[in-house]
Each structure stands twice: as structure tokens, then as C-alpha cells.
């Protein structure tokens, strides 16, 4: 449901923008408001899951997410929609880490763990594809509001399934909350994302620099506090491990593309190419279909060659696909200018998604399962929320320059989207370098035990 919500709202956004009178500078906040509250509160949500109970936290998150979705679906203004999206992020910060922590605790090692995380990745991929298709269908044949209201059906299913099937688990020992750390990291992330959002008005403006500087200072203060307190919100042992740290960093780069850059491809489909919402949904699905179709092959490559090779080649393929997309034009065809790039990106992200969550949680103590799961989610969504802000600033500047030179409006939009894809490709190249440097050592130290049985099960 959380994955679906990201893609389904992207499809609905142009229609919501038109009906509620949201301008381009406000538009990003429908995405960013969700990402900023989600990211800022994820670590606390992970600790609540660990200490209060993962099943209980999951159930409360479901109820709250449903209520926020209903509010957003009935919103009468852009401000109201943005506020509802922010509230969705609050409860998603309870949902996401509790779900992933339960998975990590139930399957701590071996064949079952590899299979469980492979299934989790496939479900996430299905959620993204389903979101594009369902969002397009609902926007075109019903109303964009149903892209939020449809969550209520999933909430009911989640509550019934959770009540009947889930087993409670919680951490033992020290269960005190780090409230100081919570405030510091929430303010740090909020300041950084807001500072990047202000950058569309100028990188050297006082308010832009002020919020970015405040965010950096608060983040340093948070890390310092984590070394001083006896019950840290984020025990630094969780991120100091080279394999997990590399996985967290790569997660943030993936968020830049999947949350940030792909939003602009949706705009290109509907605004420049004039696709209907349903056609735009089908257009986005191509990459996800490739990811799902090649997942068994990616699993085999991972268990055979280890993460260094797979997670170096994967980002490079994704970068190649993004560079292909950077050549889009206002007069171009989806089949020649978009689809080949999405297929190559799908091959790359298949290599990334199969091992990434598993590596991010490898070797984590059960006491820290929730917070490690939260940090894995936070890494991706912080990357995505910062990317939306930065890419919006880049897009706005590029369009203004093109229009000043006499370029037509639609060609100016297409050129600006291309600029976004070029920068996103550079980020994925950086991800490949990160993997090559950090995922080193004997294969047994970085690949969770499971062997070829996991490959057979994935097939």
C-alpha cells in the first residue's frame, strides 16, 4: 500500500493540480509533504515498533493511514491535500518499519530469509505497477480523488489480515525513547528538504542557505547526541557496518531516481505527449514489468557473483537508461524515445532491488530490527524528497531559460525533463562507484547464508 501510494498519486497529480488550483511550485509539496514527514519520523516509528510491539504498531499505522487517505480524497484545496499527504507520511512511518522488522525477525537467516525478501521485493514491484495502472484508470474513468480513497479498501484488508495472521514481537531490555534525538533528526531533515525546495527561487538566497545550513548543523548535532546518550534513536552500530552502510547509501541514490526523476516522466507523458492518465499508467509499467520478469535471473546472479558485481552493474545500466531518456522531445514517440530507456532501467533496477533490502538488514540484532528497517526506508525517501526539491528547481530554471531564448512551451518542458534525467544518471553512476568501493571482501561476509536453494525458490 505504501509503494502503491507513491505511484498512484504521481499519476493523479496533474488532474488534482488543475481542479484545486495548485501552481507548479506548490505541486512538488503533494509529494514532498508525504516524504518529509515519513522520513523525519521513520526512526521514531522504528523504535516504537521495536519497543511497543511490531504488530500493534502496524495496526495503528493502518488505521491512521486510512484516515489520512480519506481526508486527502475529500480535500477541497491544495493546502488541505498537502496537509493530508503529510499526515499519511506520519502513519506510514509506523507502517513501513514495523512490516519490514517483522519480516527480518521472523526470517533471521538462511534460505527462508532469502526467499522472504525476494517475495517482499516482488510485492513492492507489483505495488508500483498496480499503482500506475490503478491510478490511471481511476483518474480517467472515475476521479483523481479515488486514487487516495482506494487506500481504504487496502486498509480494511490489512487490518483483517493483521488481526488474524500476524504474531506480536518486541525488543527486550532497554526500551527508553530518545526524544532529544527524535526532535533533532526531524528538524534536521525538515530543514534540509525545505531548503532544497526553496532553491527554485535561487541557490544563493538567504532563506535557502539558512535552511540548508540549519539542517546540516542539526544533523551533526543529532549524530553527536547519538554518541552521548545511553539509549540512542539510531545506534551507530547499525550504520557503521560497511555492507549495511553501503546499502543504506545506495538506497538513497535509488530514491533520487524512483521518487524524484520518475515523477517528471509522468509529467512528460500527460503534459507534453498528451497521454490520458490510463495510457500514462501503462507507459510507466514497462520498467516494473522488466524488473519483475528478470528478478529470478538477478537472484541467481547475486548468489553466484555476490553484491559487488551485481550492485555495480545495476546502477550503470540504470544510468544508461536515464541517459537515453534525456533525449526526449516534444514531438517524439513513446515507443522510440521512452520505452527502450525504461527497459534498460528495468534491467538495472532488477539487479539492485533483489539484494538491496536484504543487505541493508543483514546481521542486525533483533533489538534493532525496527530502527534498521526504518533507516533503510528513510534512506530511500530522504533521497527522493531531496531529489524532488532539487529537480523542481532545476526544471523551473531550465524552462525559464528556454522560454527566454524563444523556445516553445512544450519543447521547453521536454528539454527540462531531459536535464533532470541527465543529473539522475550521474547519481546512479555515483551509486555504482559506491557499490564497487564498499561491497568488498569474501563473498560469504556480504551474502546472507542461503545458497542456491534460494534461487530455486525464487524461480
UniProtKB/TrEMBL annotation:
Domain Major facilitator superfamily (MFS) profile residue range list: 1-443
Keyword tRNA-binding listed: no
CDD domains, alphabetized: MFS_MMR_MDR_like
Keywords annotated in UniProt: Cell membrane, Membrane, Transmembrane, Transmembrane helix, Transport
InterPro entries cross-referenced by the UniProt entry: MFS (IPR011701), MFS_dom (IPR020846), MFS_trans_sf (IPR036259), Sugar_transporter_CS (IPR005829)
Molecular function, one GO term: transmembrane transporter activity
Protein's cellular compartments: Cell membrane
Statement: the UniProt record of this protein carries the keyword Transmembrane helix: yes
GO cellular component: plasma membrane
Transmembrane stretches, start-end: 28-45, 57-74, 86-108, 115-142, 148-167, 179-197, 209-227, 248-272, 278-297, 309-328, 334-354, 375-396, 416-439
PROSITE patterns: MFS, SUGAR_TRANSPORT_1
Record Pfam families: MFS_1
Topology versus the membrane: Multi-pass membrane protein
Protein name per the record: MFS transporter
Protein's organism: Nocardioides jishulii
Lineage: Bacteria, Bacillati, Actinomycetota, Actinomycetes, Propionibacteriales
Amino acid at each position: 500500500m505504501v509503494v502503491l501510494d507513491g505511484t498512484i498519486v504521481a499519476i493523479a497529480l496533474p488532474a488534482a493540480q488543475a481542479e484545486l488550483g495548485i501552481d507548479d511550485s506548490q505541486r512538488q509539496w503533494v509529494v514532498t509533504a508525504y516524504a518529509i514527514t515519513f522520513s523525519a519520523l521513520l526512526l521514531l516509528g522504528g523504535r516504537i515498533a521495536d519497543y511497543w510491539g511490531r504488530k500493534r504498531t502496524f495496526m495503528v499505522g493502518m488505521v491512521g493511514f486510512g484516515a489520512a487517505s480519506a481526508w486527502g480524497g475529500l480535500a477541497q484545496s491544495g493546502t488541505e491535500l498537502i496537509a493530508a499527504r503529510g499526515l499519511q507520511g506520519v502513519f506510514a512511518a509506523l507502517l513501513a518499519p514495523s512490516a519490514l522488522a517483522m519480516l527480518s525477525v521472523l526470517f533471521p537467516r538462511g534460505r527462508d530469509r532469502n526467499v522472504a525478501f525476494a517475495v517482499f521485493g516482488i510485492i513492492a514491484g507489483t505495488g508500483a505497477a498496480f499503482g500506475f495502472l490503478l491510478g490511471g484508470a481511476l483518474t480517467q474513468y472515475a476521479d483523481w480523488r479515488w486514487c487516495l480513497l482506494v487506500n481504504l479498501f487496502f486498509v480494511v484488508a490489512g487490518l483483517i489480515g493483521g488481526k488474524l495472521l500476524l504474531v506480536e514481537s518486541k525488543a527486550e531490555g532497554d526500551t527508553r525513547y530518545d526524544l532529544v534525538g527524535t526532535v533533532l533528526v526531524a528538524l534536521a531533515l525538515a530543514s534540509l528538504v525545505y531548503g532544497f525546495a526553496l532553491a527554485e527561487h535561487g541557490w544563493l538566497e538567504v532563506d535557502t542557505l539558512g535552511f540548508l545550513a540549519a539542517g546540516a548543523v542539526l544533523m551533526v548535532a543529532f549524530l553527536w547526541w547519538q554518541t552521548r546518550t545511553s539509549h540512542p534513536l539510531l545506534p551507530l552500530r547499525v550504520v557503521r557496518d560497511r555492507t549495511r552502510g553501503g546499502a543504506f547509501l545506495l538506497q538513497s541514490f535509488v530514491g533520487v531516481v524512483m521518487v524524484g526523476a520518475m515523477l517528471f516522466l509522468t509529467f512528460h507523458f500527460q503534459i507534453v505527449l498528451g497521454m490520458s492518465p490510463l495510457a500514462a499508467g501503462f507507459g510507466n509499467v514497462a520498467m516494473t514489468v522488466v524488473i519483475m520478469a528478470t528478478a529470478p535471473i538477478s537472484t541467481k546472479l547475486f548468489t553466484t557473483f555476490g553484491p559487488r558485481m551485481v550492485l555495480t552493474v545495476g546502477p550503470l545500466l540504470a544510468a544508461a537508461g536515464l541517459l537515453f531518456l534525456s533525449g526526449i522531445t516534444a514531438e517524439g514517440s513513446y515507443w522510440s524515445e521512452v520505452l527502450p530507456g525504461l527497459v534498460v532501467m528495468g534491467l538495472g533496477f532488477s539487479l539492485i532491488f533483489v539484494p538491496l533490502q536484504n543487505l541493508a538488514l543483514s546481521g542486525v540484532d533483533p533489538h534493532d530490527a525496527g530502527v534498521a528497517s526504518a533507516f533503510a526506508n528513510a534512506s530511500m525517501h530522504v533521497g527522493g524528497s531531496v531529489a524532488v526539491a532539487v529537480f523542481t528547481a532545476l526544471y523551473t530554471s531550465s524552462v525559464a531559460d528556454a522560454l527566454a531564448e524563444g523556445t516553445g512551451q512544450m519543447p521547453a518542458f521536454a528539454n527540462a525533463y531531459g536535464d533532470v534525467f541527465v543529473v539522475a544518471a550521474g547519481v546512479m553512476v555515483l551509486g555504482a562507484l559506491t557499490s564497487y568501493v564498499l561491497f568488498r571482501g569474501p563473498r560469504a561476509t556480504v551474502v546472507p547464508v542461503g545458497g542456491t536453494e534460494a534461487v530455486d525458490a525464487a524461480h
